[in-house]
Amino acid sequence: MVAFQQKKLVRMVKTRLAxxxxxxxxxxxxxxxxxxxxxxxxxxxQNWQTTIASSKATFDxxxxxxxxxxxxxVVPDSDLSACGLDGLIIGRYDLCVIDHYKIxxxxxxxxxxxxxxIVVLDDLANREHDCDILVDTSFGRNVSDYAGLIPSHTxxxxxxxxxxxxxxxxxxxxxxxxxxxxxxxxRILISxxxxxxxxxxxxxxxxVNATKxxxxxxxxxxxxxxNSADIEELCRVATQDCLLHKGTDQMSALMAxxxxxxxxxxxxxWERCSLGVPSIVVVAFDNQKLIAKALEDNSAALVVNGxxxxxxxxxxETLNMLIANHELRLKIAKSAASLCDGLGTNRIISEIYEAxxxxxxxxxxxxxxTEADLLSTFNWQSDPRTRKYSTNPNIPDFKEHxxxxxxxxxxxxxxxxxxxxxxxxxxxxxxxxxxVPTSTQESWxxxxxxxxxxxxxxxxxxxxxxxxxxxxxxxxxxxxxxENIASRKVFEKNGYISDKGTYVSKPE
Length: 508
Known about the structure:
The chain is an alpha/beta fold. Helices cover 33% and strands 21% of the residues.
Protein backbone atom coordinates (compact mmCIF):
# COMPACT_ATOMS: atom_id res chain seq x y z
CA MET A 1 0.00 0.00 0.00
CA VAL A 2 1.30 3.39 -0.98
CA ALA A 3 1.35 5.81 1.90
CA PHE A 4 -0.50 9.01 1.08
CA GLN A 5 0.30 12.20 2.90
CA GLN A 6 -2.82 13.79 4.28
CA LYS A 7 -3.01 17.37 3.08
CA LYS A 8 -5.32 20.01 4.43
CA LEU A 9 -7.66 21.19 1.72
CA VAL A 10 -7.00 24.81 1.01
CA ARG A 11 -9.66 26.67 -0.92
CA MET A 12 -7.97 29.20 -3.17
CA VAL A 13 -9.73 32.12 -4.81
CA LYS A 14 -12.14 30.85 -7.46
CA THR A 15 -11.20 27.26 -6.62
CA ARG A 16 -13.94 24.70 -6.11
CA LEU A 17 -13.63 21.34 -4.38
CA ALA A 18 -14.80 18.00 -5.79
CA UNK A 19 -14.84 14.61 -4.08
CA UNK A 20 -14.99 11.31 -5.99
CA UNK A 21 -16.15 8.04 -4.40
CA UNK A 22 -15.39 4.94 -6.43
CA UNK A 23 -13.46 1.67 -6.22
CA UNK A 24 -11.49 -0.54 -8.59
CA UNK A 25 -10.11 -4.06 -8.31
CA UNK A 26 -9.60 -7.22 -10.33
CA UNK A 27 -13.24 -8.23 -9.89
CA UNK A 28 -15.16 -5.01 -10.62
CA UNK A 29 -12.66 -3.68 -13.12
CA UNK A 30 -11.39 -0.17 -13.80
CA UNK A 31 -14.45 1.36 -15.43
CA UNK A 32 -15.83 3.21 -12.40
CA UNK A 33 -12.45 4.72 -11.66
CA UNK A 34 -11.75 5.70 -15.27
CA UNK A 35 -15.07 7.52 -15.53
CA UNK A 36 -14.39 9.46 -12.34
CA UNK A 37 -10.83 10.19 -13.38
CA UNK A 38 -11.98 11.64 -16.71
CA UNK A 39 -14.38 14.02 -14.93
CA UNK A 40 -11.72 14.92 -12.36
CA UNK A 41 -9.18 15.83 -15.04
CA UNK A 42 -11.80 17.97 -16.79
CA UNK A 43 -12.62 19.79 -13.55
CA UNK A 44 -8.96 20.34 -12.70
CA UNK A 45 -8.52 22.05 -16.06
CA GLN A 46 -11.14 24.53 -14.83
CA ASN A 47 -9.34 25.21 -11.53
CA TRP A 48 -11.06 22.66 -9.29
CA GLN A 49 -9.27 20.74 -6.55
CA THR A 50 -10.06 17.03 -6.57
CA THR A 51 -10.11 14.36 -3.87
CA ILE A 52 -10.63 10.64 -4.43
CA ALA A 53 -11.98 8.39 -1.68
CA SER A 54 -11.42 4.72 -2.44
CA SER A 55 -10.66 1.38 -0.83
CA LYS A 56 -7.17 0.25 0.08
CA ALA A 57 -7.42 -2.31 -2.75
CA THR A 58 -7.93 0.52 -5.26
CA PHE A 59 -4.78 2.35 -4.21
CA ASP A 60 -2.83 -0.92 -4.10
CA UNK A 61 -3.92 -1.59 -7.66
CA UNK A 62 -3.19 1.92 -8.96
CA UNK A 63 -0.55 3.73 -6.87
CA UNK A 64 -0.40 6.50 -9.49
CA UNK A 65 -3.77 7.88 -8.33
CA UNK A 66 -1.86 10.21 -6.05
CA UNK A 67 -0.61 11.89 -9.23
CA UNK A 68 -4.06 12.12 -10.84
CA UNK A 69 -5.91 13.65 -7.88
CA UNK A 70 -4.93 16.47 -5.55
CA UNK A 71 -5.81 14.46 -2.44
CA UNK A 72 -6.37 10.77 -1.67
CA UNK A 73 -8.48 9.28 1.15
CA VAL A 74 -8.49 5.58 2.03
CA VAL A 75 -12.01 4.43 2.86
CA PRO A 76 -12.78 1.26 4.87
CA ASP A 77 -13.89 -1.62 2.69
CA SER A 78 -17.09 -1.84 4.74
CA ASP A 79 -18.08 1.74 3.84
CA LEU A 80 -20.90 0.75 1.49
CA SER A 81 -24.18 1.24 3.27
CA ALA A 82 -23.45 4.20 5.54
CA CYS A 83 -21.17 7.17 5.17
CA GLY A 84 -17.89 6.49 6.92
CA LEU A 85 -16.17 9.57 5.55
CA ASP A 86 -17.03 12.02 8.32
CA GLY A 87 -13.79 11.43 10.17
CA LEU A 88 -11.72 11.43 6.99
CA ILE A 89 -13.09 14.37 5.06
CA ILE A 90 -11.87 17.87 5.81
CA GLY A 91 -13.97 20.81 4.78
CA ARG A 92 -17.08 21.15 2.66
CA TYR A 93 -17.18 20.21 -1.00
CA ASP A 94 -18.94 21.86 -3.88
CA LEU A 95 -19.46 18.50 -5.54
CA CYS A 96 -19.46 14.79 -4.75
CA VAL A 97 -19.34 12.29 -7.63
CA ILE A 98 -20.27 8.68 -6.81
CA ASP A 99 -19.73 5.76 -9.16
CA HIS A 100 -20.33 2.54 -7.26
CA TYR A 101 -22.80 -0.30 -7.76
CA LYS A 102 -23.06 -0.98 -4.00
CA ILE A 103 -23.87 2.61 -3.01
CA UNK A 104 -27.43 3.90 -3.08
CA UNK A 105 -29.71 6.63 -1.72
CA UNK A 106 -28.97 6.09 1.98
CA UNK A 107 -25.29 6.71 1.49
CA UNK A 108 -25.86 9.61 -0.92
CA UNK A 109 -28.22 11.38 1.48
CA UNK A 110 -25.60 11.25 4.23
CA UNK A 111 -23.06 12.74 1.80
CA UNK A 112 -25.18 15.90 1.59
CA UNK A 113 -23.85 16.91 5.00
CA UNK A 114 -20.59 17.94 3.40
CA UNK A 115 -21.34 18.18 -0.33
CA UNK A 116 -23.48 20.84 -2.00
CA UNK A 117 -24.23 18.81 -5.12
CA ILE A 118 -24.36 15.05 -5.70
CA VAL A 119 -23.64 13.45 -9.08
CA VAL A 120 -24.22 9.71 -9.50
CA LEU A 121 -22.95 7.56 -12.36
CA ASP A 122 -24.95 4.37 -12.83
CA ASP A 123 -25.99 1.97 -15.58
CA LEU A 124 -28.06 -0.60 -13.69
CA ALA A 125 -31.25 1.32 -12.80
CA ASN A 126 -31.86 -1.14 -9.98
CA ARG A 127 -31.79 0.98 -6.79
CA GLU A 128 -32.82 4.35 -5.38
CA HIS A 129 -30.55 7.39 -5.61
CA ASP A 130 -30.51 10.76 -3.90
CA CYS A 131 -28.67 12.95 -6.38
CA ASP A 132 -28.89 16.22 -8.26
CA ILE A 133 -27.50 14.78 -11.51
CA LEU A 134 -27.74 11.17 -12.69
CA VAL A 135 -25.55 9.96 -15.58
CA ASP A 136 -26.41 6.67 -17.30
CA THR A 137 -24.58 6.16 -20.60
CA SER A 138 -26.59 3.09 -21.61
CA PHE A 139 -27.94 3.38 -25.14
CA GLY A 140 -31.70 3.76 -25.21
CA ARG A 141 -32.01 4.53 -21.52
CA ASN A 142 -34.88 6.86 -20.59
CA VAL A 143 -36.35 8.42 -17.48
CA SER A 144 -39.03 5.73 -17.12
CA ASP A 145 -36.24 3.24 -16.29
CA TYR A 146 -35.60 5.27 -13.14
CA ALA A 147 -39.24 5.85 -12.20
CA GLY A 148 -39.43 5.89 -8.40
CA LEU A 149 -35.64 5.61 -8.12
CA ILE A 150 -34.59 9.28 -8.36
CA PRO A 151 -36.07 12.50 -6.91
CA SER A 152 -38.17 14.75 -9.13
CA HIS A 153 -35.49 17.46 -9.10
CA THR A 154 -32.77 15.14 -10.48
CA UNK A 155 -31.31 16.12 -13.84
CA UNK A 156 -31.02 12.86 -15.80
CA UNK A 157 -28.34 12.59 -18.50
CA UNK A 158 -28.82 9.51 -20.64
CA UNK A 159 -26.96 7.86 -23.50
CA UNK A 160 -23.38 7.52 -24.79
CA UNK A 161 -23.25 11.27 -25.57
CA UNK A 162 -22.57 11.60 -21.85
CA UNK A 163 -19.93 8.87 -21.63
CA UNK A 164 -17.14 10.44 -19.52
CA UNK A 165 -14.02 9.81 -21.58
CA UNK A 166 -10.52 11.20 -21.47
CA UNK A 167 -10.49 14.47 -23.45
CA UNK A 168 -7.81 13.06 -25.77
CA UNK A 169 -10.46 10.96 -27.47
CA UNK A 170 -12.44 13.84 -28.90
CA UNK A 171 -9.19 15.65 -29.73
CA UNK A 172 -8.20 12.65 -31.89
CA UNK A 173 -11.59 12.27 -33.50
CA UNK A 174 -10.28 13.62 -36.79
CA UNK A 175 -8.37 10.32 -37.21
CA UNK A 176 -11.68 8.73 -38.17
CA UNK A 177 -11.09 10.07 -41.67
CA UNK A 178 -8.20 7.68 -42.19
CA UNK A 179 -10.33 4.65 -41.31
CA UNK A 180 -13.02 5.70 -43.74
CA UNK A 181 -10.62 5.30 -46.64
CA UNK A 182 -10.17 2.02 -48.48
CA UNK A 183 -7.00 1.01 -46.70
CA UNK A 184 -5.96 -2.56 -45.84
CA UNK A 185 -6.00 -3.60 -42.21
CA UNK A 186 -2.51 -3.01 -40.85
CA ARG A 187 -3.01 -2.81 -37.08
CA ILE A 188 -5.26 -4.52 -34.54
CA LEU A 189 -5.73 -3.54 -30.88
CA ILE A 190 -6.73 -5.91 -28.07
CA SER A 191 -7.86 -4.46 -24.75
CA UNK A 192 -10.27 -5.87 -22.18
CA UNK A 193 -9.85 -3.22 -19.51
CA UNK A 194 -8.81 -3.87 -15.94
CA UNK A 195 -10.89 -6.93 -15.07
CA UNK A 196 -10.18 -9.67 -17.58
CA UNK A 197 -11.04 -12.50 -15.21
CA UNK A 198 -12.15 -14.70 -18.10
CA UNK A 199 -8.74 -14.58 -19.79
CA UNK A 200 -10.28 -13.04 -22.89
CA UNK A 201 -7.05 -11.21 -23.73
CA UNK A 202 -5.29 -14.54 -24.14
CA UNK A 203 -8.20 -15.87 -26.21
CA UNK A 204 -8.15 -12.82 -28.50
CA UNK A 205 -4.38 -13.02 -29.09
CA UNK A 206 -4.75 -16.67 -30.07
CA UNK A 207 -7.62 -15.74 -32.37
CA VAL A 208 -5.59 -13.06 -34.14
CA ASN A 209 -2.67 -15.47 -34.55
CA ALA A 210 -5.03 -17.99 -36.12
CA THR A 211 -5.98 -15.53 -38.88
CA LYS A 212 -2.42 -15.61 -40.27
CA UNK A 213 -3.03 -11.97 -41.25
CA UNK A 214 -0.03 -9.77 -42.02
CA UNK A 215 -0.72 -7.13 -39.39
CA UNK A 216 0.77 -5.47 -36.31
CA UNK A 217 -0.86 -6.27 -32.99
CA UNK A 218 -1.08 -4.09 -29.87
CA UNK A 219 -2.11 -5.86 -26.66
CA UNK A 220 -3.04 -3.74 -23.63
CA UNK A 221 -3.24 -5.16 -20.10
CA UNK A 222 -3.20 -3.60 -16.61
CA UNK A 223 0.20 -3.06 -15.00
CA UNK A 224 -0.41 -5.89 -12.51
CA UNK A 225 -2.22 -8.26 -14.88
CA UNK A 226 -2.35 -11.72 -13.29
CA ASN A 227 -1.71 -13.61 -16.52
CA SER A 228 1.12 -11.37 -17.73
CA ALA A 229 3.57 -14.25 -18.14
CA ASP A 230 1.19 -16.19 -20.38
CA ILE A 231 0.41 -13.11 -22.47
CA GLU A 232 4.09 -12.23 -22.80
CA GLU A 233 4.84 -15.70 -24.13
CA LEU A 234 1.94 -15.53 -26.59
CA CYS A 235 3.16 -12.16 -27.86
CA ARG A 236 6.71 -13.47 -28.14
CA VAL A 237 5.78 -16.42 -30.35
CA ALA A 238 3.06 -14.60 -32.31
CA THR A 239 3.29 -14.76 -36.09
CA GLN A 240 2.43 -11.04 -36.19
CA ASP A 241 4.50 -8.10 -35.01
CA CYS A 242 3.11 -8.00 -31.47
CA LEU A 243 3.62 -5.30 -28.81
CA LEU A 244 2.51 -5.75 -25.19
CA HIS A 245 1.54 -2.56 -23.31
CA LYS A 246 1.31 -2.81 -19.51
CA GLY A 247 -0.65 -0.15 -17.70
CA THR A 248 -0.46 2.31 -20.59
CA ASP A 249 -1.85 5.83 -20.34
CA GLN A 250 -1.77 6.17 -24.14
CA MET A 251 -4.98 4.29 -24.92
CA SER A 252 -6.39 7.11 -27.04
CA ALA A 253 -3.25 7.21 -29.19
CA LEU A 254 -3.27 3.43 -29.63
CA MET A 255 -6.92 3.47 -30.66
CA ALA A 256 -6.34 6.36 -33.03
CA UNK A 257 -3.78 4.38 -35.03
CA UNK A 258 -5.56 1.02 -35.07
CA UNK A 259 -7.79 -0.36 -37.83
CA UNK A 260 -9.72 -2.94 -35.80
CA UNK A 261 -10.16 -3.37 -32.07
CA UNK A 262 -11.16 -6.37 -29.96
CA UNK A 263 -12.47 -5.74 -26.46
CA UNK A 264 -15.26 -5.88 -23.92
CA UNK A 265 -18.52 -3.94 -23.77
CA UNK A 266 -17.51 -1.67 -20.91
CA UNK A 267 -16.20 1.89 -20.81
CA UNK A 268 -13.73 1.14 -23.62
CA UNK A 269 -16.67 0.42 -25.95
CA TRP A 270 -17.52 4.12 -25.99
CA GLU A 271 -13.84 5.02 -26.42
CA ARG A 272 -13.75 2.88 -29.56
CA CYS A 273 -16.98 4.44 -30.81
CA SER A 274 -15.71 7.97 -30.29
CA LEU A 275 -12.85 7.26 -32.71
CA GLY A 276 -14.94 5.23 -35.14
CA VAL A 277 -12.91 2.06 -34.66
CA PRO A 278 -14.48 -1.07 -36.25
CA SER A 279 -14.69 -3.44 -33.31
CA ILE A 280 -15.35 -6.97 -32.22
CA VAL A 281 -17.01 -6.95 -28.81
CA VAL A 282 -16.72 -9.98 -26.57
CA VAL A 283 -19.18 -9.94 -23.67
CA ALA A 284 -17.17 -10.37 -20.48
CA PHE A 285 -19.84 -9.79 -17.79
CA ASP A 286 -23.64 -9.90 -17.61
CA ASN A 287 -23.84 -6.12 -17.04
CA GLN A 288 -22.21 -5.64 -20.47
CA LYS A 289 -24.95 -7.42 -22.39
CA LEU A 290 -27.08 -4.27 -22.68
CA ILE A 291 -24.25 -2.24 -24.23
CA ALA A 292 -23.26 -5.12 -26.52
CA LYS A 293 -26.82 -5.49 -27.81
CA ALA A 294 -27.10 -1.74 -28.41
CA LEU A 295 -23.84 -1.72 -30.38
CA GLU A 296 -24.97 -4.70 -32.44
CA ASP A 297 -28.47 -3.33 -33.08
CA ASN A 298 -26.97 -0.02 -34.29
CA SER A 299 -24.34 -1.71 -36.51
CA ALA A 300 -21.63 -0.16 -34.34
CA ALA A 301 -19.74 -3.40 -33.60
CA LEU A 302 -19.73 -7.13 -34.20
CA VAL A 303 -20.55 -9.10 -31.05
CA VAL A 304 -19.22 -12.48 -29.96
CA ASN A 305 -21.42 -13.94 -27.26
CA GLY A 306 -21.16 -17.25 -25.50
CA UNK A 307 -20.61 -18.57 -22.03
CA UNK A 308 -17.43 -19.49 -20.26
CA UNK A 309 -16.20 -21.77 -23.05
CA UNK A 310 -13.39 -21.08 -25.47
CA UNK A 311 -14.38 -18.39 -27.96
CA UNK A 312 -11.16 -18.43 -30.01
CA UNK A 313 -12.75 -19.89 -33.15
CA UNK A 314 -15.69 -17.47 -33.01
CA UNK A 315 -13.39 -14.44 -32.70
CA UNK A 316 -11.13 -15.74 -35.50
CA GLU A 317 -14.07 -16.26 -37.85
CA THR A 318 -15.50 -12.82 -37.09
CA LEU A 319 -12.10 -11.16 -37.47
CA ASN A 320 -11.42 -12.81 -40.83
CA MET A 321 -14.75 -11.52 -42.09
CA LEU A 322 -14.03 -7.99 -40.86
CA ILE A 323 -10.51 -7.90 -42.32
CA ALA A 324 -11.78 -9.03 -45.74
CA ASN A 325 -14.75 -6.67 -45.94
CA HIS A 326 -13.88 -2.97 -46.17
CA GLU A 327 -17.52 -1.99 -46.73
CA LEU A 328 -18.46 -3.65 -43.46
CA ARG A 329 -15.64 -1.86 -41.62
CA LEU A 330 -16.79 1.41 -43.17
CA LYS A 331 -20.39 0.84 -42.06
CA ILE A 332 -19.34 0.00 -38.49
CA ALA A 333 -16.97 2.96 -38.28
CA LYS A 334 -19.62 5.46 -39.36
CA SER A 335 -22.30 3.97 -37.09
CA ALA A 336 -19.98 3.81 -34.08
CA ALA A 337 -18.78 7.39 -34.51
CA SER A 338 -22.37 8.62 -34.68
CA LEU A 339 -23.20 7.06 -31.28
CA CYS A 340 -20.48 8.77 -29.23
CA ASP A 341 -18.41 11.84 -30.06
CA GLY A 342 -16.12 11.78 -27.01
CA LEU A 343 -17.47 15.01 -25.48
CA GLY A 344 -19.40 13.33 -22.66
CA THR A 345 -17.03 14.58 -19.94
CA ASN A 346 -17.42 18.17 -21.09
CA ARG A 347 -21.22 17.81 -21.23
CA ILE A 348 -21.35 16.47 -17.66
CA ILE A 349 -19.15 19.29 -16.38
CA SER A 350 -21.30 21.83 -18.17
CA GLU A 351 -24.35 20.43 -16.35
CA ILE A 352 -22.53 20.67 -13.02
CA TYR A 353 -22.39 24.44 -13.39
CA GLU A 354 -25.55 26.48 -13.05
CA ALA A 355 -27.48 26.76 -16.30
CA UNK A 356 -27.22 30.20 -17.91
CA UNK A 357 -30.46 32.11 -18.05
CA UNK A 358 -32.08 34.59 -20.38
CA UNK A 359 -32.86 38.08 -19.13
CA UNK A 360 -36.37 36.91 -18.18
CA UNK A 361 -34.99 34.09 -16.03
CA UNK A 362 -35.49 31.10 -18.36
CA UNK A 363 -32.88 28.33 -18.34
CA UNK A 364 -30.86 27.63 -21.48
CA UNK A 365 -29.14 24.34 -22.30
CA UNK A 366 -27.50 22.67 -25.27
CA UNK A 367 -27.47 19.01 -26.26
CA UNK A 368 -26.13 16.92 -29.09
CA UNK A 369 -28.30 16.99 -32.20
CA THR A 370 -30.11 13.80 -33.21
CA GLU A 371 -32.04 12.65 -36.27
CA ALA A 372 -35.21 13.89 -34.59
CA ASP A 373 -33.96 17.48 -35.03
CA LEU A 374 -34.03 17.35 -38.84
CA LEU A 375 -37.26 19.30 -39.35
CA SER A 376 -36.57 21.89 -36.63
CA THR A 377 -33.16 22.76 -38.04
CA PHE A 378 -34.64 22.98 -41.53
CA ASN A 379 -37.29 25.44 -40.35
CA TRP A 380 -34.72 27.61 -38.55
CA GLN A 381 -32.34 27.66 -41.50
CA SER A 382 -35.15 28.36 -43.96
CA ASP A 383 -36.42 31.42 -42.15
CA PRO A 384 -35.82 34.37 -44.53
CA ARG A 385 -34.93 36.52 -41.53
CA THR A 386 -32.07 34.12 -40.71
CA ARG A 387 -30.83 33.70 -44.28
CA LYS A 388 -30.71 37.46 -44.76
CA TYR A 389 -27.49 37.67 -42.76
CA SER A 390 -26.06 34.28 -43.66
CA THR A 391 -22.84 33.96 -45.66
CA ASN A 392 -24.98 31.79 -47.96
CA PRO A 393 -28.33 33.59 -48.32
CA ASN A 394 -29.92 30.90 -50.50
CA ILE A 395 -32.64 28.91 -48.77
CA PRO A 396 -31.97 25.15 -49.19
CA ASP A 397 -34.68 22.76 -50.31
CA PHE A 398 -35.57 19.96 -47.93
CA LYS A 399 -33.56 17.25 -49.71
CA GLU A 400 -30.46 19.44 -49.68
CA HIS A 401 -30.92 20.10 -45.97
CA UNK A 402 -31.55 16.43 -45.24
CA UNK A 403 -28.29 15.43 -46.93
CA UNK A 404 -26.40 18.19 -45.09
CA UNK A 405 -27.95 17.27 -41.75
CA UNK A 406 -27.22 13.54 -42.07
CA UNK A 407 -23.63 14.29 -43.03
CA UNK A 408 -23.31 16.72 -40.12
CA UNK A 409 -24.29 14.07 -37.57
CA UNK A 410 -21.57 11.75 -38.87
CA UNK A 411 -18.86 14.34 -39.58
CA UNK A 412 -16.00 13.86 -37.08
CA UNK A 413 -14.91 17.44 -37.65
CA UNK A 414 -18.30 18.96 -36.86
CA UNK A 415 -20.17 19.28 -33.58
CA UNK A 416 -23.84 20.08 -34.05
CA UNK A 417 -25.78 20.96 -30.91
CA UNK A 418 -29.36 22.01 -30.25
CA UNK A 419 -30.07 25.05 -28.10
CA UNK A 420 -33.02 24.54 -25.75
CA UNK A 421 -35.04 27.13 -23.86
CA UNK A 422 -36.67 25.56 -20.81
CA UNK A 423 -36.27 22.18 -22.54
CA UNK A 424 -37.77 23.29 -25.88
CA UNK A 425 -35.57 23.22 -29.03
CA UNK A 426 -35.00 26.85 -29.99
CA UNK A 427 -31.91 26.99 -32.20
CA UNK A 428 -28.64 25.37 -33.16
CA UNK A 429 -24.99 25.96 -32.27
CA UNK A 430 -22.44 24.42 -34.63
CA UNK A 431 -18.68 23.98 -34.39
CA UNK A 432 -16.49 23.09 -37.38
CA UNK A 433 -12.89 22.10 -36.78
CA UNK A 434 -10.34 24.45 -38.34
CA UNK A 435 -7.37 22.46 -39.55
CA VAL A 436 -4.13 24.16 -38.55
CA PRO A 437 -1.30 21.66 -39.16
CA THR A 438 1.29 23.71 -37.27
CA SER A 439 -0.84 24.29 -34.16
CA THR A 440 -1.49 21.92 -31.27
CA GLN A 441 -4.43 24.00 -30.00
CA GLU A 442 -7.94 23.19 -31.12
CA SER A 443 -9.57 25.84 -33.30
CA TRP A 444 -13.23 25.78 -34.31
CA UNK A 445 -15.47 27.92 -36.50
CA UNK A 446 -18.66 28.81 -34.62
CA UNK A 447 -22.08 29.25 -36.20
CA UNK A 448 -25.31 29.96 -34.40
CA UNK A 449 -28.89 30.38 -35.51
CA UNK A 450 -31.81 30.90 -33.17
CA UNK A 451 -35.55 30.61 -33.68
CA UNK A 452 -36.22 34.31 -34.20
CA UNK A 453 -39.60 34.02 -32.50
CA UNK A 454 -37.76 33.47 -29.18
CA UNK A 455 -34.42 35.09 -29.98
CA UNK A 456 -34.81 38.06 -27.66
CA UNK A 457 -33.82 38.07 -24.00
CA UNK A 458 -30.26 36.84 -24.59
CA UNK A 459 -30.81 33.28 -25.82
CA UNK A 460 -27.90 33.45 -28.27
CA UNK A 461 -25.54 34.84 -25.65
CA UNK A 462 -26.45 32.09 -23.19
CA UNK A 463 -25.87 29.48 -25.90
CA UNK A 464 -22.37 30.83 -26.61
CA UNK A 465 -21.54 30.59 -22.89
CA UNK A 466 -22.53 26.92 -23.01
CA UNK A 467 -20.42 26.43 -26.12
CA UNK A 468 -17.41 27.70 -24.21
CA UNK A 469 -18.14 25.25 -21.40
CA UNK A 470 -18.35 22.43 -23.92
CA UNK A 471 -14.94 23.26 -25.42
CA UNK A 472 -13.20 25.26 -22.67
CA UNK A 473 -9.69 25.08 -24.16
CA UNK A 474 -10.49 25.80 -27.80
CA UNK A 475 -10.05 28.89 -29.94
CA UNK A 476 -13.37 29.98 -31.46
CA UNK A 477 -13.70 31.83 -34.75
CA UNK A 478 -16.91 33.40 -36.03
CA UNK A 479 -17.56 34.99 -39.42
CA UNK A 480 -20.17 37.75 -39.05
CA UNK A 481 -21.38 40.10 -41.78
CA UNK A 482 -20.90 43.79 -40.99
CA GLU A 483 -24.59 44.48 -41.43
CA ASN A 484 -25.54 41.77 -38.91
CA ILE A 485 -25.39 44.15 -35.98
CA ALA A 486 -27.36 41.93 -33.59
CA SER A 487 -24.99 38.98 -34.01
CA ARG A 488 -21.94 41.20 -33.68
CA LYS A 489 -23.24 42.46 -30.35
CA VAL A 490 -23.85 38.89 -29.12
CA PHE A 491 -20.32 37.77 -29.94
CA GLU A 492 -18.77 40.92 -28.48
CA LYS A 493 -20.77 40.45 -25.27
CA ASN A 494 -19.23 36.98 -24.94
CA GLY A 495 -15.65 38.19 -25.23
CA TYR A 496 -15.08 37.71 -28.96
CA ILE A 497 -12.54 40.18 -30.34
CA SER A 498 -12.95 41.57 -33.84
CA ASP A 499 -10.00 40.95 -36.14
CA LYS A 500 -10.53 42.33 -39.65
CA GLY A 501 -14.18 41.33 -39.68
CA THR A 502 -13.57 37.98 -38.02
CA TYR A 503 -14.47 37.46 -34.37
CA VAL A 504 -12.09 35.39 -32.23
CA SER A 505 -12.51 34.01 -28.70
CA LYS A 506 -9.56 32.46 -26.86
CA PRO A 507 -9.70 30.29 -23.72
CA GLU A 508 -9.50 32.08 -20.38
